[in-house]
């Protein structure tokens, strides 16, 4: 009678250890801001410029296996670029892959009088194509070499402040 109980204990232990192993494996695919890479480095690893995100990122999560990400800013953010006004919510989500950001939420652009959500960004050589679903606009990649600052975007009066924000943003 002792043997069946012992076998059951060993099988239960094996199942328990297997569960812990797979849980550890699944959670190891999620990259947190505590890791060595910054969110800006993650953008660059996927062939995007750092200027797609403003300064002020406080943390991010990335599931390496699916590309799903969440970026947290210290608050919502808005600024103007040429004739466009952009708004970032304090939480931005989407999926990142080489040359493609998709299923984006938390970023809007004002076109004329309408606020439209940017759903996708695709890199095509030296151009970035921003899609709002029904239409898109292309911009040179070089326009996004620096991180914009909330409030003033790329047109901050203090250019050094914008460069500090770009280089000191650790997430």
UniProtKB/TrEMBL annotation:
Question: Which stretch is the leader sequence?
Answer: 1-33
Name of a matching Pfam family: DUF538
Name of the protein described by the UniProt record? DUF538 family protein
Organism of derivation: Populus tomentosa
Q: Does the keyword GTP-binding apply?
A: no
The UniProt keyword set, sorted, is:
Signal
């Amino acid at each position: 009678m002792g043997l069946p109980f012992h076998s059951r204990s060993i099988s239960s232990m094996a199942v328990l250890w297997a569960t812990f192993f797979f849980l550890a494996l699944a959670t190891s695919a999620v990259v947190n801001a505590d890791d060595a890479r910054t969110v800006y480095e993650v953008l660059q690893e996927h062939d995007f410029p750092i200027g797609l995100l403003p300064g002020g990122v406080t943390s991010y999560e990335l599931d390496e296996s699916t590309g799903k990400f969440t970026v947290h800013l210290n608050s919502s953010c808005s600024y103007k670029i040429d004739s466009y006004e952009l708004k970032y919510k304090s939480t931005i989500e989407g999926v990142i892959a080489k040359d493609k950001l998709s299923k984006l939420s938390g970023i809007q652009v004002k076109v004329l009088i309408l606020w439209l959500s940017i759903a996708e960004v695709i890199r095509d050589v030296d151009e970035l194509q921003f899609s709002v679903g029904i239409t898109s606009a292309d911009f040179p990649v070089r326009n996004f070499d620096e991180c914009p600052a909330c409030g003033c975007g790329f047109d901050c009066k203090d250019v050094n402040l914008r460069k500090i924000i770009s280089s000191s943003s650790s997430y």
